[in-house]
Amino acid sequence: MSAKAAGVPFGIDFGGSGIKGAPVDLEQGDFAEERLRIETPQPSTPQAVAAVFAELLTKFPGSDGPVGVTVPGVVVKGVVHSAANIDKHWIGEDADRLITERTGRDVHVVNDADAAGLAEVRYGAAKGRRGLVIVTTLGTGIGSALVYDGVLVPNSELGHLEIDGHDAEKRAAASAREREDLSWEEWATRLTVYYRKLEDLFSPELFVVGGGVSKKADQFLPLVDIETEIVPAQLRNAAGIVGAALYATESET
Question: Which among 36, 145, 14 has a CA at the least distance from the CA of 86?
Answer without folding.
Answer: 14
